[in-house]
Amino acid sequence: xxxxxxxxxxxxxxNPEFWVSQIFWLTLxxxxxxxxxxxxxxxxxxxxxxxRKSQILENIEAAEKQREDSEAKLLEYEEIISKSKLExxxxxxxxxxxxxxxxxxxxxxxxxQINEEINKVEREIGILRESAPDKINTIAIETxxxxxxxxxxxxxxxxxxxxxxxxxxKRNGDKYYGN
Amino acid sequence: xxxxPMSQFDVYRIGPEIKVGTFDISFTNASLFMIISTxxxxxxxxxxSKKNKLLPNKIQLLAELSYTFVxxxxxxxxxxxxxxxxxxxxxxxxxxxxxxxxxxIPYTFTVTSHIIVTFVxxxxxxIGVTVIGFIKHGFGYLKLFVPSGVPAxxxxxxxxxxxxxxxxxPISLSVRLFANMMAGHTMMKxxxxxxxxxxxxxxxLPLSFSVALTGLEILVAFLQAYVFAILTCxxxxxxxxxxx
Lengths: 179, 244
Fold this sequence. Notes:
The complex is a heterodimer of chains A (179) and B (244).
Chain A: H1 2-7, H2 19-152, H3 158-177
Helix pairs in contact in A: 2-3
Chain B: E1 19-20, E2 23-24, H1 29-50, H2 58-78, H3 86-103, H4 115-137, H5 155-167, H6 169-202, H7 204-240
Antiparallel strand pairs in B: 1-2
């Protein structure tokens, strides 16, 4: 064979001795390869790829859904928080208003009481003031009569003394009471 | 192994001579490597498609990446109409790729370095594509040879050129693959021979060249398989989507 190759100028490819054999074996092996690949193996690979793709898509879909769910939950949660904040504010305001009202009523009550007390005391003072000159007059009359008795040893009519005292007190009353 | 750089392409009989009628279909080293390639492809893709894990292991990833690679290549060049021919182009690409790659192992035989093998593959593609074209478009497929927008004066010339270019497709397709494989392997053998003849003193230069060439040849082995497959897709595209 090598001798033949050498003789034909060194190109074994151009030696037709095994051409038929090569064509036969090529057809056979390539035919088997094609049939097995196309009927058995390639559909399986295609199937594997498809199923992986669909599974990935499914997973992405599930993840998307879960994300949406969690977002909805978050919104709900925020709503609850804002609602409870509003409620707390309301309660606070109500409490404040109530406290202010209580303070006002208490204050009014106290003011009234104080006013009453002041009025009462003022009335008492008025009474005292009115009765004060009479008492002073009586004291003055009694003191004067006793003084006169001690000085001159004679009884003096109380009525004449009281007349004098009245007269004096009327004249000097302004000086003492400032009215 | 003989020193003759062409002797690596010798085909020799393994086992007895088998004859069917006048045809000799004996089992040869070429047959052996066709079977090894086929078996390896089937083994890898069988392992790669057996279990369907959501996170693929290495071999499954390899199978699936190859699948999507070829699938994308067909879709990009020939469109979605080429889907029924996916299995054929996938087998073709894998067969050529594995035959090329097995040829890169020292002392192996490169199936695709034989013109008869590549020519049979290319002829099959050529005949198949032509048949598909006539089935899809009837005699309208002949419009492929009449490009639109060409001046009437030039038309006869253009038609002749188009017909010649169409008929030369199987030749260019098969010779491209065969010549690339043969030239690369011959060159590696020649440089390997230089290493021996120049000895320990001067052999380093051809050796380093040989190493670089091995890398290049692995690239070429992949590239030629890719080119073979993509040209098939382009021819298929002509047959499926008549653009002219």
